[in-house]
Specification:
Length: 345
């Protein structure tokens, strides 16, 4: 953790649902100064600046990037808008933390990597499940050999229909594979420590289309890895809104010697029942403990800030972002064609 004496300036571009997490993390980091935040929505960004004590706010990201008291920025715009902002940030000499997925084409990922390399700045993609205590536990059990050789993995990461119909204004321009499949595929690559060679995915478009949102309802995907491992990934955007929390997240890793089951559906951790009804607090991803932001969604952003302050490489590389997008592109191609797709490298 950096000290106040080596404090760095941070900015956030995109202060919507998840941008708020970046804003709150930097505002509470002892080595970071939240210099400026930016969103196209003036009312939103002004409110966030007031709530979290940001030094200033703007609706023009070029204005933020022009400041020489900002060393690093988070890019938390919708997934298909990452490229332009991230390249401008790198060219302005800022270290960049990109929300997942890195981008929605491999060419966009490569262009951002090239821009960061040319400018000599750090580029990290926020795959925050690598900071999820249960996922970390499984990874450690694989590394220690307790599970033997990983054989098969099942990842279920689903959202209620609230997410594509009410939470995200841009769901019709994206898919649940970009939004949730990006986490799932990162866990597959990270837990197997291997690359994906072939995918076969089946999707359907019915329920969301009927609600006027033109994006698939779900994708069921089989993923093969170079070393022989196989994963099954389930991502849907149509679970019932009466679920206790917006997401359901379960994972099973079956190794040659041992098996791990993880239930990360955070509503199980703290349930409160009062005359007003049930409440299921999110105490795993984003919460507050002893007056400080906490949870693994916060910890990955804090890691990026620490790396900028201490001038070290983050635990997630730009290549992790590019390979992730490469697999996600292949999943879309397979669902479209109805055929297995070899992942091209
Ligand atoms: N919502 C979540 O739970 C969640 C969790 C983790 C990661 N993410 C990722 O975070 C990113 C953003 O998702 P979100 O849910 O916060 O979306 P959102 O729609 O709530 O927020 C995106 C914000 O970006 C702003 N924006 C767009 N273009 C801009 C520009 N050129 N300059 C400044 N601001 C601009 C929009 O006005 C909007 O407020 C996505 O990549 C998403 O996958 C979301």
């Amino acid at each position: 953790m950096g000290t106040v004496s080596d404090s760095r300036g941070f900015g956030v571009i995109g202060t919507g649902v998840w941008g708020e997490t970046h804003v709150m993390t930097y505002s509470a980091h002892p080595g970071a100064e939240l210099v400026c935040i930016c969103d196209l929505n003036e009312e939103l960004v002004r409110g966030r600046a007031e709530q979290y004590g940001a030094g200033s706010w703007t609706t023009d990201y070029e204005e933020l990037l022009a400041r020489d008291d900002i060393d690093a920025v988070s890019v938390v715009t919708p997934d298909f808008l990452h490229r332009e902002v991230a390249i401008a940030a790198a060219e302005a000499g800022k270290h960049v933390l990109l929300e997942k997925p890195m981008a929605t084409t491999v060419a966009d990922c490569q262009a951002m990597i090239d821009a960061a390399e040319a400018a000599g700045v750090t580029l990290m993609v926020d795959f925050h499940n690598r900071w999820n205590p249960a996922m970390w536990g499984i990874r450690e059990k694989i590394e220690s050999g307790e599970l033997g050789e990983p054989q098969m993995l099942t990842v279920r990461l689903n959202d209620t229909i609230y997410v594509p119909t009410q939470m995200l204004s841009w769901s019709g321009k994206s898919t649940v594979i970009w939004f949730l499949g990006s986490h799932s595929v990162d866990l597959v690559r990270w837990l197997f420590d291997d690359e994906v060679t072939r995918v076969y995915s089946v999707s359907r478009s019915k329920v969301l289309k009927a609600r006027g949102v033109d994006t698939p309802d779900f994708f069921l995907t089989i993923v093969e890895l170079a070393g022989g491992g196989v994963a099954h990934i389930e991502n849907c955007w149509i679970m019932s809104e009466s679920m206790p929390t917006v997401f359901d997240f379960k994972l099973e890793m079956i190794g040659s010697e041992g098996t791990c089951f993880a239930d990360c559906s955070s509503h199980r951790m703290l349930q409160t029942y009062t005359p007003e009804g049930p409440e299921y607090a999110d105490v795993a991803v984003r919460t507050e403990v002893q007056g400080e932001p906490g949870g693994f969604g916060i910890n990955s952003i804090r890691h990026f800030a620490d790396c900028v302050i201490e001038d070290v490489e983050p635990a997630v590389s730009p290549r992790d972002g590019l390979e992730n997008t490469r697999v996600l592109v292949a999943i879309h191609e397979s669902a479209q064609s109805g055929q297995p797709v070899e992942v091209q490298r």
